[in-house]
Amino acid sequence: MICPPKLVPGDTIALVSPAKAIDASYIDFAKAYFEKQGFVVLVSPNASGEFRYFSGTDQQRAGDLQWAIDHPDVKAIVCNRGGYGTIRLFDLVNWANLLREPKWILGFSDITNFNCLGLRLGIETAHTTMPLNFQENSPESLESMMHVLSGTENEYIWEAHPSNKPGMAEGTVVGGNLSILYSLLGTPYSPDYENAILFIEDLGEQMYHIDRMLSAFKLAGVFDRISGLIIGGMTELKDTAKATEWTMEELISEHTQFRSFPIAFQAPVGHIPDNRAFICGRKATFTVTENQSYFFQ
To answer: What is this structure's pTM?
Structure first.
């Protein structure tokens, strides 16, 4: 895996909106935040645009991304928000310059598509918070994002959960939004799960949807290959009118039955204020004990 160069004050960051439309106030806040850290910030032409659901047409959003990839001064590309739309840009962007001049791509949720694309290209990307959420994020969330850009290692410790499975794992980190990972199964962009530490999160899904996705992962052999499983925020999950009465913990335990890898719930990642950075494509150490869970990358 290629690690993009670390940033230093004076380097340039581009803010782009490759998916859903976003109010300009969030972009302005992020621009001021990064400038306070000493960076030069460029905003793509259609960052605060609007076309139907999106920040622009597919061609406009792809053009903004291409502009950021090709720009000689830009060292990191920060996606302003998720929603939906990044998958539509895969075939509209020439990714060759990203290989010639690697630069960080940051984001989460629908941006998981780019995290998986990075794995396919052989370039590390970072699953981090985004400008849409900066104002509600914990200090630790923003700090972990800045650590990625500066080349500083991240270390996370969080409380034990009754459904955890103790153990230790080392492996390449893959993951992100469960719905996106599920949608990529069977495509060339589905991650290589062999000996991987998989982290997942999601927002607003029905419990039977979660069961369907986990069933697909099991049938695809994902749980036969990973070395560890981290479950982050599974936020605002819903149930049907005639309730399934499943819990997330119950479904995970059922679908990973007889597997020996460590499992930790309630990790600080996902659609939650304390959304810490995970570098996709980089090796990490993951340990679960009776008292706490530990992640170092």
So the answer is: 0.97
